[in-house]
Specification:
Radius of gyration: 17 Å
Order of helices and strands: HEHEH
Strand content: 5-15%
Largest sheet: 2 strands, parallel
Structural class: mainly alpha
Distance between the termini: 21 Å
Shape: elongated
Number of helices: 3
Length: 91
């Protein structure tokens, strides 16, 4: 709403709300246990669900742009991008 108000004052410079997605306190590709390198404390689907919930909140809050940021794990980034795709497909 505020972006719309400010843009109305000067329509030559539109303003947008950017919603930042990430990070979580879990990593999908690194084991939390040095004794068991195959162990994971989160699944890809759980990450997707978490990011999807963030996306719904950001879009309901008026975000115009979604930005995946502050993610050091590429599997987490992939889950965030997948969740964006799921949101766009179902909305």
């Amino acid at each position: 709403e505020v972006c719309d108000e400010v843009t109305a004052k000067d329509p030559t410079k539109p303003r947008f709300v950017v919603g930042a997605i990430g990070p979580t306190n879990r990593t999908g590709s690194i084991s939390p246990s040095v004794e068991d390198p195959s162990a994971r404390n989160v699944t890809f689907d759980e990450l997707v669900d978490t990011y999807f919930e963030q996306i719904v909140g950001l879009m309901d809050g008026g975000a115009d742009i979604l930005m995946v940021e502050t993610i050091f794990d590429t599997l987490n980034a992939k889950a965030a991008l997948y969740a964006i795709g799921e949101y766009l497909e179902f909305s």
